[in-house]
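Structure tokens please, single chain.
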Amino acid sequence: MGLPHLISIVGAGPGDPELLTVKALRRLQDADVILYDALIGDEMLKLAKPGTVKVYVGKLNNDGQNQVERQDGIHQLFLHWAAKDKKVVRLKTGDPMILGRGAEEIRFCKTNNLNYEVIPGVTAAVAGSSLFSVPLTERGKNNMLLFYTCRKDNDCFPQLEPLVSVLQTGSPVVLYMGLHHLSELSGKLLENGISGKIPVQILCKISQPGQSSYSTVLENVDKFLAEKRPCTPSLVIVGENAVRI
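Here you go.
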């Protein structure tokens, strides 16, 4: 049996506090401790009750942290606050199970007999699609969708072949953490036969103050990035039908 405490692994959505689920809001308002990610804004943290302990446990690109040590530290905080019988909210950007470390945190809770729950959040792809009117699926056009983390593994893009295959069907690919390597990935896609005219949407600060979007095509990505310098965090949607309505 789990302990009386509760660890809530909560998806915070893309940034706008009004996009929290009702359940997530309730857990925030009832929390004794909030362990929050880098992109969680002050307005969301203000939803907590007075006296709630707020601990930053996030990461940013190239911030110098050892990510294994960082995650181990989060797990140890679970144990620490659970032993004090506190209600903990692990507040994660987007959805806990989409390109995050939600699975690792769930496994740790199960291994250590911690009482936990997972609350879904609106992931950036879904929020960006709706807020900027870029349909990810549409009858007669897009029959599937691929989420892809635009990070390199041993100086290569992993699973490049299925990425190319999805784009060749006309269906979109959503690139998370995609801006840093977008120029290089675009070159690889062109080398693998993807049309240079395929649309590219760059969505910045989705649902947050200062949100913006840019449109270009694959063959112009290098020039576009040099001229516009989109801000982060950004999400990139690539696809034949990835165009704004």
